[in-house]
Amino acid sequence: MFSEQSGPQSQPVTMEARTFWLLVVAVLALGSSSSTGQYVGLSANQCAVPAKDRVDCGYPEVTPEQCNNRGCCFDSSIHGVPWCFKPLQEAECTF
């Protein structure tokens, strides 16, 4: 007589499946970001530069990733202005 075991032995499969789906969701979330408004390592406030005040930080056909690697903001939603531009400096605290 054999009985099916559905206790702790089946748990690793469930944890593996859960981990797999969490990774899938994370990859999809990262891959679905658009090319507008990407501020990797920068706050949204630092990249809230008015279009007329943007200082070019890139070069023609720079990708969002290349721009961010330079420490710059990338926003391709406004035509006729730099898409890769220098961020605003965070206000420094003075004590």
TrEMBL record:
Residues 1-37 form the signal peptide. SMART domains: PD. One of its GO terms (biological process) is regulation of glucose metabolic process. Keywords: Cytoplasm, Disulfide bond, Extracellular matrix, Secreted, Signal. One of its GO terms (molecular function) is identical protein binding. Residues 45-88 form the P-type domain. SUPFAM superfamilies: Trefoil. The keyword Cell membrane does not apply. Disulfide bonds join C47-C73, C57-C72, C67-C84. Pfam families: Trefoil (PF00088). It is found in: Cytoplasm; Secreted, Extracellular space, Extracellular matrix. Its main location: cytoplasm. GO terms for cellular component: extracellular region; secretory granule. The keyword Hydrolase does not apply. Involved in the maintenance and repair of the intestinal mucosa. Promotes the mobility of epithelial cells in healing processes (motogen). Monomer. Homodimer; disulfide-linked. This is Trefoil factor 3. It comes from Bos taurus.
